[in-house]
Amino acid sequence: MLIRTPKPSELKENQVTDQTVYNNRRSILKGLGYLGAGTLLAGNKANAFNLFGTEDKTPFQTKALSFSQSAPENEQQILTPEQKVITHNNFYEFGTGKSDPAQEAQNFKVDPWTLKIEGLVEEPITLGYDDLYKTFDLEERIYRLRCVEAWSMVVPWIGFPLYKLLQKAKPLSSAKYVAFETLYDPKKMPGQKSRFSGGGLNYPYVEGLRLDEAAHPLTLMSVGLYGKTLPPQNGAPIRLVVPWKYGFKSIKSVVSIRLTDKMPPTTWNRLAPSEYGFYANVNPQVDHPRWSQASERLITTGSLFNRNRVATQMFNGYEDVAPLYKNMDLTRYI
Fold first, then answer.
1. Where are the alpha helices (DSSP H) in the chain?
2. With 0-12 CB in 10 A as exposed, 13-18 as middle and 19+ as buried, what is 168?
3. Residues of the chain with pLDDT under 70
4. Digit-coded pLDDT (tens) for 230-263
5. Which residue in 102, 211, 218, 112 sits closest to 159, CA to CA?
């Protein structure tokens, strides 16, 4: 599968990840056998350090894969620093502040874990924790992440295309949509205990895609980032990543994937349907009712007050997905 990241527009020198940070990451991956943009395979259990210095049960071993359309080296340096990615999060299950998830989720245990794929399929599937890393070849993909709040990151995810999981389950011809659900466990996720602490949302968090969106090669089930397993605040142990949609579509800590013939409800659309549509495609021409979507603040090495603004691109720059919406009025189907 040939995957190429879009070219970020209007990026300035001070928006590029510090060279020493990037080189250190590459030296770590090289030490693990990383030879370039490649397929990552789950290896034997061994000691490794995760983001917080504790033992990581699933280090990644790697195998080379040639990308004939891989981005030039200087483009791949435009990564949001790892520390920003793991400390600036929207995950209301652990609090509504950007730093709350990193602080409140560190005792969140993800092993054991069960992910079920069911509904309108010939072969329902149940994956355990280890299966998330062993069932499919894992790839590193550098994707832009655009939040509906008009900020963005560039993140090196690790995962597998969702379509491979769907193929394994064999959708029935009647299946038209894919519904996702996050773990519901108020004892482990304090934001689920009340609507006040959880930002007014109804839990569990649910999301959905049209089947053709879910089957697109860019749609990723991520189990890691920056060469490591996902930290809990980023959606451990497995989350969805849909790079051409606003970030709230990329549901975290997924326990259920159900194929259905009806458009499934989604959490933010249920809360405020006039503000958050089912599709949620990044569209600089359609503003949020309370702010413009024409530009975004690119989160880089500076403080949150740095004005690193860039123009927002249609579909977040992933215009290969445009045929999915042929003849659709994307000012109406937001």
1. 19-31, 73-76, 82-85, 100-104, 131-134, 162-169, 211-214, 267-271
2. middle
3. 1-77, 301-307
4. 999 999 999 999 999 999 999 999 999 999 999 9
5. 218
